[in-house]
Amino acid sequence: MKVAVIGGGWAGLAAAVDLTAAGVATTVYEAGRVPGGRARSVSIDGRTLDNGQHILLGAYRDILDVMRRIGADPERLFERRPLQVVDDAGFRLALPGWPAPLNVAWALLTAHGVGWREKVATARWMQGLKARGFRLAAEATVADWLDGAGQTGELRRHLWEPLCLAALNLPAGRASAQVFANVLRDSLGSRRREDTDLLLPRVDLGRLLPGPASHWLAAHGATLRFSTRIEALEATPSMSRSPANASPRRSSPSPRNMRARCGRK
Fold it and tell me: What does the domain layout of the chain look like in residue ranges?
């Protein structure tokens, strides 16, 4: 069996590692010149820069396991700290190193720049989310969800919206409320204190997962095709056809464009 992974971001690379480890012939197609997607490093004028800062939490246990599998030790590459959110407007929320959920409760209780009514309303909202298993009744944007929940005060401006942007790489007006609720479930709503920890990279983003994963995949027989954009997926009568054995169609200017064909069951 041959499998094509479209996109060489963190999710695509993690999927490719799992497939390759299972003995599947895997090809990764990435439109960019380097792996990593939205959380990658780029070289500009001889300097290595990250394409923005992305939040990493202790709750990301699956991706930490992938890092260990490919030889990128999280304990060496990250500095682990209790979560703190501080800005120059006087807002401060800091989680102590206490067991969950006491750490989150204390952080909310002692948050600076937030009134008591908002703290109580937010505590009730979070308890309601937990009671529903962080499952939302209908899909919505994060902004609409927060509006409907009455989360329109300081915590929205200084915590929820920045956390949404940092975790999902999308502003609240475009991000999925259910996906953001999943982030809250796995971090602030978790029973494991370690899940709320902030993981601060000691190296550039490319050396956390994209670089090590690419080297591991190449060493284990996977194929990586950078600067290769997938234009479309076309079903063919043959079930043996897949994006992994389709031929690229070159166009100008670069990057290369590929019309991939895949089998349909």
Answer: 2-57+65-72+204-263, 83-196
Tell me, yes or no, if the pTM score tops 0.90.
Answer: no
Type of residue at 109: L
Assigned token pair, 129: 């989310």
Given this structure, which CATH class describes domain 2-57+65-72+204-263? alpha beta
Q: Which of 146, 143, 184, 191 is nearest to 167 (CA)?
A: 184
pLDDT one-digit tens code per residue, 166-206: 888 899 999 999 999 999 999 999 999 999 999 999 999 99
Structure tokens of 8? 């060489």
Cis-peptide, bond into residue 171, ω within 30° of zero = no
Q: How far apart are CA 140 and CA 178, in angstroms?
A: 8
Structure token digits, residue 73: 């030790």
> Tell me, what's the pLDDT at 236?
74
